[in-house]
Amino acid sequence: MAASAGGRKLGWTVGFPWRRIILTLVAIGIGVFVLIGSYRTLTLPDAERIIAETWFQLMVRGLALGAVYALIALGYTLVYGILRTINFAHGEVFMAGAFGSYFFAAAFAESGFLDRHIVVSVIVLLLSSMAVSVGVAVLLERVAYRPVRRAPRVVPLITAIGASLFLQGTFSGFFGPDFKGYPKPEILGGQWELFGVTVKRTDIVVFLTMVVAVAALQYFVRRTTTGKSMRAVAYDREIASLMGIDVDRVVLTTFAIGGLLAGIAAVLYSMTFGQIGPFMGFLPGIAAFTAAVLGGIGSIGGAALGGLLLGILQSVGPYLLLSGFHVPSPFQLKDVVTFSVLVLVLLFRPAGLLGSEEVDRL
Amino acid sequence: MNLRRTIRGGAMGGTVLVYLCLVGLVGTFSDLSLIGTWLTAAGLLLVLPPVVAGAVMTRPRVQAGERRTMALSTAGTGAATGFASGAVLAVGMGLVQVIGIDTVRRVFVSVSPILMETLTFGLSTWGGALVIVIGAAALGGAGALLRSMPRQIRRPIVVGTVAVVALGLLQRVVPSIFDTLSIERDWLYRDITNGLQTTGALIVFLLSVGVTEGLRRLQGRSAKEAGPADALPPEEGAAPEGRRGVPWGGVVRVVVLAVALVALPQLAGPVVSESLGTVGIYVLLGLGLNIVVGYAGLLDLGYVAFVAVGAYFFALLTGSHLITAFGLEDPLASLHVDPFVAIALVAGIAALIGLVIGAPVLRLRGDYLAIVTLGFGEIARVLLTSDWLQPVFGGARGLGDITDASIGSYGFRHPQHFYYLVLALCLFAVFVSWRLQDSRIGRAWTAMREDEQVADATGVSTVRYKLLAFAMGGAIGSLGGAVYAIKLGSLSASGGTFGVLVSVTVLAVVILGGLGSIRGVIVGALVLIGLPDLLSQFEEYRLLVYGAALMVMMLQRPQGLVPNSRRTRELLEVDRSQDRWTGALAADKRVASEVSPVGEGSG
Amino acid sequence: MSLLDVRGVAKHFGGLRALDGLDVRVDEGEIVSIIGPNGAGKSTVFNVISGMYGPDEGDVGFRGESIVGLQPNQVTRLGIARTFQNVHLFPNMTVLENAMVGQHCRSSAGVVGAVIGTPRQRREERRIRERAQNALSFFGPRLAGHRQDQLAFALSSTNRRRLEMARAMATEPRLLLLDEPTGGMDPSETLELRDDIVRMRDQLGLTVVVIEHDMHVVKGVSDRVIAFDDGRKIAEGSYDEVAEDERVIEAYLGTRHEELR
Question: How many residue pairs bridge chain A and chain B with CB atoms within 8 Å of each other?
Answer without folding.
Answer: 206
